[in-house]
């Protein structure tokens, strides 16, 4: 869907953003964190990145909200700082939530078993056990925690790490 490509493009535009001035800090990290209901501080921001991407997508792409039937962006969009809480957010909005057996699609939100989250950048190839994502608060090695994550990266992850996919449209 073209609308979801627009969302993925916003996420991709952030690849290369890095923390500045300390762990879980920096001007752009604060902007991501402001997309949640928590006050910006030195806390892990992977879910904040996804909240920010969705907020930007719904406000920048004039057709995005209409295409998926959203009338109140601020009421609908996620504001959680917890990766696992995205599953509750999705269920409350009657979005489709799939397990790791369902092939990933471009624009899916992927929740990992290790309390981490990202956005699927491309449809999963048939019979592949790998997905391509864009994630915040990770690093070149793919680690995610409050000490090792340092920026927004493109990642390839095994499907064995997936807790759920959330399909917006």
Order of helices and strands: HHHHHHEEEEEE
Mean pLDDT: 93
Q: Give the neighbour order of strands across the main sheet.
A: 1-6-2-3-4-5
By secondary-structure content and strand pairing, the structural class works out as alpha+beta
CATH class (first level) name: Alpha Beta
Number of helices: 6
Indicate the overall shape.
globular
Number of strand elements: 6
Head-to-tail CA distance between termini: 8 Å
**Percentage of residues assigned to helices:** 25-40%
What does this structure look like?
The mean pLDDT is 93. Strands 1-6-2-3-4-5 form a 6-stranded antiparallel beta sheet. The chain is built from 6 helices and 6 strands; from the N terminus they run H-H-H-H-H-H-E-E-E-E-E-E. It has 169 residues and is of the alpha+beta class. The chain has a single domain (2-167), classed as endopeptidase fold (from Nostoc punctiforme) (Alpha-Beta Complex), CATH 3.90.1720. Helix content is 29%, strand content 21%. The protein is globular, with a radius of gyration of 15 Å.
What features would you highlight for this structure?
169 residues, alpha+beta, endopeptidase fold (from Nostoc punctiforme), 6 helices, globular
């Amino acid at each position: 869907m073209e609308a979801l490509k627009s969302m993925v493009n916003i996420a991709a535009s952030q690849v290369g953003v890095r923390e500045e001035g300390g762990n879980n800090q920096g001007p752009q990290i604060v902007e991501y964190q402001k997309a949640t209901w928590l006050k910006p501080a030195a806390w892990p921001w992977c879910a904040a990145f996804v909240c920010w991407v969705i907020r930007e997508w719904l406000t920048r792409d004039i057709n995005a909200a209409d295409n998926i039937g959203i009338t109140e962006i601020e009421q609908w969009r996620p504001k959680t700082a917890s990766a696992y809480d995205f599953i509750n957010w999705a269920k409350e909005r009657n979005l489709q939530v799939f397990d790791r057996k369902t092939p990933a699609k471009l624009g899916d939100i992927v929740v990992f078993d290790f309390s981490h989250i990202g956005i699927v950048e491309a449809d999963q190839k048939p019979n592949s056990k790998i997905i391509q994502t864009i994630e915040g608060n990770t690093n070149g090695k793919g680690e995610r925690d409050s000490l090792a994550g340092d920026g927004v990266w493109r990642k390839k992850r095994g499907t064995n790490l997936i807790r759920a996919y959330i399909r917006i449209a």
